[in-house]
Amino acid sequence: MADTLTVTDSRTGKQYVLPIEDGTIRAMDLRQIKKDGEDFGLMSYDPAFTNTAACRSRVTFIDGDKGVLMYRGYPIEQLAEHSDFLETAYLILFGELPQQKQYDDWARQITLHTMLHTNIAKLMEGFRHDAHPMGMFISTMGALSTFYPDAKEIFSEESRRLQTVRLIAKVPSISAYAFRHSIGRPFNQPDNDLSYAGNFLNMLFRMTELKFNAHPVLERALDVLFILHADHEQNCSTSVMRAIGSSHADPYSAIAGAAAALYGPLHGGANEAVLRMLHEIGSMQNVPAFIKRVKAGEGRLMGFGHRVYKSYDPRAKIIKRIADLVFDVTGKNPLLDMALELERIALEDEYFVSRKLYPNVDFYSGLIYQAMGFPVDMFPVLFAIPRTAGWIAQWEEMLTDPDQKIARPRQIYVGPTQRPYVSKEKRR
Ligand SMILES: CC(C)(COP(=O)(O)OP(=O)(O)OC[C@H]1O[C@@H](n2cnc3c(N)ncnc32)[C@H](O)[C@@H]1OP(=O)(O)O)[C@@H](O)C(=O)NCCC(=O)NCCS
């Protein structure tokens, strides 16, 4: 017998049997529960969608209590160990790990699309010298839709594939241009001989040398960080991507919106906030007083806690290992000792333990990025580059899902009831 939920409406005494499928009831099944013929029907109230599944997805699986993260069924630990970002992006986008020839074709296509139209460079030159790189990233993403009007053909598989290649290829170039603009240096052209992460580092940091070769440890560290950030199921920015995409906007416009969501300190800005917090604390001796203030509700321990992970974020474990390798090359980030002390205290303290607040992916990523030479303003951009793969995969899944429609949540209206217009002189 199929699973069901029986609901008795105390207002009418009527009973309703609602089917349970995949551990959910359909919110629309509640609509039949009415007080009388005039009644609109029952809705569910779920601000911030904390307990509402808005889609079926095959991309990413998270078990927040157990600290599990998998892309298309492959555990994140195995991908971080054996894969590279381009292969992981292929897996996320197309569902399977590529065979050698598929991988080679994919990598070649990406390499062929890394260059930016010269007018994009001109557009980016128009920003103020101190413009935040994430602001530049968001605006340039939106502008890309005007360069590729064919992207509006969202129901053409061929067009979607072309935009996918363009996007994965161009996000590092746009990000590097934003960085170079903010430090007043000329833009570096991509180098097709290099890996995805290696070429990105080349576009960021090459000065007068004819060939730039990043330190292999740093190149690999950045690639693994890209793998860890490639998707994270229905988070804030991905929900925005799906919501904008549901109105059939082109993918560049949708990504501009998703990136804007990522910009916020509670999402992609968290690692920047971690570093600001560490600078604010200043020294080891101030750590206990800072923890006391957090426990008194006067601020948060940034990089701790997560909407879904109620145990150690599996990505944070991998990042901690990478941090050691990076610091061997770059020298230790002086803020690291303070971060380790904060973690040590928080993992023993009843306040954090009882609320299941553990370090998340952002707690250490900022320290690594800073040690590699990135200014804090670049952190959300470094998140947006790999997340582009996840956004596109989720967007495509939404477009091809017959269950989906334009996203349109409901509300409970709590404003004034109808009242007559009052002229200016009579207003109190
Ligand atoms: C990520 C985050 C937004 C998730 O929030 P959430 O699941 O909605 O959790 P809530 O805001 O409901 O918090 C639950 C409780 O833990 C506390 N809490 C959550 N995160 C905390 C933090 N980082 N420091 C101190 N207390 C925290 C809240 O004050 C609340 O306590 P209360 O029950 O006494 O009121 C939140 O943990 C946070 O702000 N973390 C810091 C920012 C960050 O690192 N974001 C990156 C996410 S990848």
Give me a quick take on this structure.
By secondary structure, the chain is mainly alpha-helical. It is built from 17 helices and five strands.
Radius of gyration: 24 Å
**Ligand identities:** coenzyme A
Low confidence ranges: none
Strand content: under 5%
Number of strands: 5
Share of residues in helices: 40-55%
User: What is the chains' assembly state?
Assistant: single chain
Overall shape: it is: globular
Give the overall average pLDDT.
Answer: 95
Number of discrete helical segments: 17
Distance linking N and C termini:
63 Å
User: How can the largest sheet be summarized?
Assistant: 3 strands, antiparallel
Structural class: mainly alpha
Tell me the series of helices and strands, N- to C-terminal: EEEEEHHHHHHHHHHHHHHHHH
Strand order of the largest sheet: 3-4-5
What does this structure look like?
This protein has 428 residues and is mainly alpha-helical. It is 49% helix and 5% strand. It has helices at 76-82, 85-94, 100-112, 118-125, 133-147, 157-182, 196-205, 216-228, 236-245, 251-262, 270-281, 287-295, 314-330, 336-348, 350-354, 362-371, 379-399, and strands at 4-8, 15-19, 60-63, 68-71, 74-75. The chain has a three-stranded antiparallel sheet with strand order 3-4-5. A hairpin with a 6-residue loop joins strand 1 (4-8) and strand 2. Helix 6 packs antiparallel against helix 17 and helix 13 (314-330) packs parallel to helix 16 (362-371). The longest helix has 26 residues, at 157-182. The protein is globular. It starts with a strand and ends in a 29-residue tail after the last helix. The model has no long low-confidence stretch (mean pLDDT 95). The structure holds coenzyme A.
